[in-house]
């Protein structure tokens, strides 16, 4: 794949970083994949400097492992970090959805409804990448509707391993009806301002990711860091 970037060095670095991050999160670069500065610089038609800077940034986020004199690999998924991110996400998102049931803007409620319609299309087309994006957007809308976007950013910072696990789950099992139904019921609970029901649904919804870990680790042990 040859991706030519005609930008200044800072923009080149950002473009390489965002492209590599998306490819890692979408499993186009699976855990354990070896990559090199030379290879990536040729793909993007840039010098090694923005590539090296992107590698360092991705390593700081836990997506790459850099071994001096040996090379760089896409990091394995750390199940411990998946569980920790899931713990933090659950407690914050349950608090936010309870708040959404007290007060939630009408325009954001309409956005959730539109998002659900698009999720239904993804179910029919089996588009796991778009389904993941819509899942993320659905939850983001709830945070935005409650004026808690900074809280969301804190959650996002620790979700890299969790997100790869979620993406893997969507990619290998296209039975997403339960996921859609939980989102639908969350929307209805917010619309009806039923905080107790919304809290229960959110708890069950977020527990799915952690519950799936055993199955994924058994089926794809080479993608996960061994304890």
Characteristics of this structure?
227 residues, single chain, 11 helices, mainly alpha
Describe the structure.
This protein has helices at residues 9-25, 37-44, 48-60, 79-100, 106-125, 128-145, 149-157, 160-172, 177-192, 195-211, 213-219; strands at residues 34-35, 64-67, 71-74. It is mainly α and 227 residues long. Strand 2 (64-67) and strand 3 form a beta hairpin. Helix 5 (106-125) runs antiparallel to helix 9 and helix 6 crosses helix 8 (160-172).
Write the layout of secondary structure elements.
Blueprint: H1 9-25, E1 34-35, H2 37-44, H3 48-60, E2 64-67, E3 71-74, H4 79-100, H5 106-125, H6 128-145, H7 149-157, H8 160-172, H9 177-192, H10 195-211, H11 213-219
Antiparallel strand pairs: 1-3, 2-3
Described by strand count, sense and barrel closure, the largest sheet is: 3 strands, antiparallel
Total beta strands: 3
The helix/strand order is HEHHEEHHHHHHHH
- Our estimate of the beta-strand percent is under 5%
- What would you call the shape? globular
Distance between the termini: 35 Å
Radius of gyration: 19 Å
What's the total helix number?
A: 11
Helix content: over 70%
Mean pLDDT reading: 91
Q: If strands are numbered along the chain, what order do they take across the biggest sheet?
A: 1-3-2
Question: Which stretches are poorly predicted, pLDDT < 50 over at least 5 residues?
Answer: 1-9
Class by helix and strand content? Answer: mainly alpha
